[in-house]
């Protein structure tokens, strides 16, 4: 009997083809702003590990941008305060992680992003905010985060807000002082908070973007796994490093000088306000959101210090 010319696929080939088709259907494209930062970079990595395409928006093309390319991300150099640069950044993306540096311009950048995202029909946004964001916040920076939340609400976009406590990365920002045996802070020794690692914030952001439906419209307060006072934290860091670390409270202007941010009026005002927030316990708290969304334990301070031991050496 003559052949019909039709090709018959084996069950294995059919299953392989179905798997490839499913992967194509499930693969999405996401924009990550501030992609070279403490939460942006690991968010890019986690989304790539999930098989998604990622556009990484950065302010400058440097070695950090190259590391994002090495992860397989499409790097875009752009200004978040320019609508003409944000439009192509969001065009064609399914979702976005919106993060802005601790600097002036947050509300304007949020409005620009929201407009571009509406035009591009972005399906979901994860927004980085601050734990103490509220309409009567003392700090203009903190109030701006609350205002940014309102702008995104007015936009009609599907959004999840992450109100995050202090990053564990503050230990790295002051690592040059810790190397000298000094835990320096402008906050009181007994002020309490639960430091959370940037990789855990990124894990939450990536998890939400990967499965946004159940998180749409939610606001999550994110904390690390254990609450400490600043004094307790200084002693724990010393224990992990195996040497004495002295707790040292300094004036805010002196602290900024030690950080290389001397004379920055915006940061001076912000830290002055956050010191009052710390006194009132507004940075305290615990939650289970991170564990539930990521499906893994949060990073402990001990693990964080070990992961970055070379920075403290």
Quickly describe the structure.
The chain is of the alpha/beta class and 313 residues long.
The CATH top-level class label = Alpha Beta
Helix content: 40-55%
Query: Into how many domains do the coordinates divide?
Result: 1
The overall average pLDDT, rounded, is 93
Shape: globular
Please write the string of helix (H) and strand (E) elements. HEHEHEHEHEHEHHEEHEEHEHHHHH
Please identify, by name, the CATH architecture.
Answer: 3-Layer(aba) Sandwich
Which residues form runs of ≥5 with pLDDT under 50? 1-6
Rg, Å, rounded: 22 Å
Strand order of the largest sheet: 3-2-1-4-5-6-9
Q: Got a strand count?
A: 11
* Number of H- or I-type helical stretches: 15
CATH topology: Rossmann fold
Quick one: CATH superfamily?
Answer: NAD(P)-binding Rossmann-like Domain
**Largest sheet, strands/sense/barrel:** 7 strands, parallel
Return the structural class. Answer: alpha/beta
The fraction of residues in strands falls at: 15-25%
Q: Alpha-carbon distance between the termini?
A: 79 Å
